[in-house]
Amino acid sequence: MKAFAPGSVTAVFAPAESGDESMGASFAIEDGVVADVRPADEPAVAVDGEPTDFEPVELALDALDVAAAVDLASSVPIGCGFGASGAATLATALAANEAFDLGRTREELVAVAHRAEVAAGTGLGDVFVQEMGGLVVGDGRDRWRVGTDAPIEYDSFGGIATEEMLGDDELMARIERAGTRTLDALPADPSFSELTRAAWSFAEATGLPTPAVREAVASVENAGGLASMAMVGETVFAVGVEGALPDRTRICPDGASLR
Asked: Closest Cα to residue 146, out of 138, 135, 156, 157?
């Protein structure tokens, strides 16, 4: 059984009071992860046919109490700020529910995927965006969707270890201050351009942009567009340009689904 979950890019975020979620603004993209789940004697995970350890997926299978072989096919870079681990975990949960006739609700499966991500230290809410699709804004209590399918361009130079970042108290305090300030000033239903502009101010305040990120953002701005950094990865996304960055996709209006 196969399921697809879109990738997601977090533009702005701050830790929520619960500590196991975040508030922020993120968007799902048409590129993502397909999980092919089959019953097996022992749990096993592979990415594009290559066996690998994938902790959140393994934790989700354990929570669902199933032994499965999971083959993941990703059309987004893994570990670069595209929410690939969340997409893989959510797609796995949806496919496993069908493959093993578990009868779990969609809400229950999203919760399983979220808890697995938090336990693995790989995310604080990507799966909620990937379940909803579109541009999603959350205040730590509620989430709402802003309708858009804007085209975006992106370039990725590498990853930033999410687990290490989440464990850096000084950095997280800086992110909390900058993220809260940015979100308070953001309209409830921002346009994608408004979000991107605010996101770059937030990124600069965190101190996370690398020289490669700064150079790419400047290149987009010189071409007349707006750009910012994916949270968290050495990745730049842009709006309002064509051909400024090497990869192009769109915001995905739909959430995760069976294939």
From this structure: 135
User: Could you tell me if 61 and 68 are in contact, meaning their C-beta atoms sit under 8 angstroms apart?
Assistant: yes
The structure tokens listed for 6 are 């879109």
Dig out the tokens for 231 from the structure: 């949270």
Q: In Å, how far are 68, 226, 257 from 143, measured between CA atoms?
A: 32, 25, 20
Task: Compute φ and ψ for 145, nearest 5 degrees.
Answer: -105, 135
CA 69 – CA 83 distance, rounded (Å): 21
| Percent of the chain topping pLDDT 70 | 96
CB-based contact 118:197 (threshold 8 Å): no
Per-residue confidence (pLDDT) for residue 147, from 0 to 100: 83
Phi, psi of 149, deg, nearest 5 = -130, 40
Q: What's the pLDDT tens digit per position in 233-242?
A: 899 999 999 9
Bridge-based pairing state of the strands 151-159 and 68-74: unpaired
Q: Tell how strand 2-15 and strand 151-159 pair up.
A: unpaired
At residue 19, does pLDDT exceed 60?
Answer: no
Which residues on neighbouring strands pair with residue 233, listed in sequence order?
Answer: 159
How confident is the model over 34-92, as pLDDT tens digits? 999 999 999 999 999 999 999 999 999 999 999 999 999 999 988 899 999 999 999 99
pTM across the whole model: 0.92
Q: Which of 78, 91, 5, 8 is closest to 47 using CA atoms?
A: 78
Give, as one character, the DSSP assignment of residue 163: H
Q: CA-CA distance, 40 to 68, in Å (whole number)? A: 5
